[in-house]
Amino acid sequence: MNITEKNDTLYSIGILWNMADKYAKEIIFEISESTELTEVTQYDLKEIYDAFVLDCYKGDDEAFLDGYIYDKIKNMKKAGNNKIVLFAAKINNPTYKINEENGMTQCVEIRSIKEKIRNKYASKIDGYFFDNLIHMTDNEEEYKRVSKIICNYDAYRV
Questions:
Q1: How does pLDDT run across 73-104, given as a tens digit for each residue?
Q2: Deepest of 16, 63, 125, 158, by most Cβ within 10 A of its Cβ?
Q3: How high is the pLDDT of residue 110?
Q4: Pairing of strands 9-16, 134-136
Q5: Whole-structure pTM value
């Protein structure tokens, strides 16, 4: 396991997918107890939900393997709404791990937040499908990419 420390700040964009709508406030509160949130905004993506999800995962080749991302979207459509909650998190003095499967650098603290939320809420979500609850960018490159994408969806802020 390759873990390194950096004495700086990492910003992360988080997305609570529509499947988490019922628990969104509770989840945001829980995340805010472990890290600083600098922004929280709700979006109703209406008919462009699929496009938004696909845009968020562009550049993540693993998400497109074996049709995973399309299965994820199909599952999330069962929620009956197209609302998401976007949030920005600030991680001070993050530590990083290299994912041995894909060689990507991942923030340990962000991975921990996602795992904690998934473990607590997955059983409460009807039809839970891995990763249809929360997404967070876990390195600087992914943060920059998703930040640019989100700007294209400002008209859908609630």
A1: 999 999 999 999 999 999 999 999 998 877 88
A2: 16
A3: 96
A4: antiparallel
A5: 0.91
Q: Which long-range contacts (CB under 8 A, 24 or more apart) does 139-146 make?
A: 139/10, 139/96, 139/104, 139/105, 139/106, 139/107, 140/10, 142/59, 142/60, 143/10, 143/11, 143/12, 143/13, 145/58, 145/59, 146/13, 146/56
> 113-137, pLDDT tens digit by residue?
999 999 999 999 888 887 899 999 9
Q: How far apart are CA 76 and CA 69, in angstroms?
A: 10
The first and second tokens of residue 99, run together, are: 């994912």
The residue length of the chain stands at: 158
Q: What residues are paired with 16 via a beta bridge?
A: 85, 134
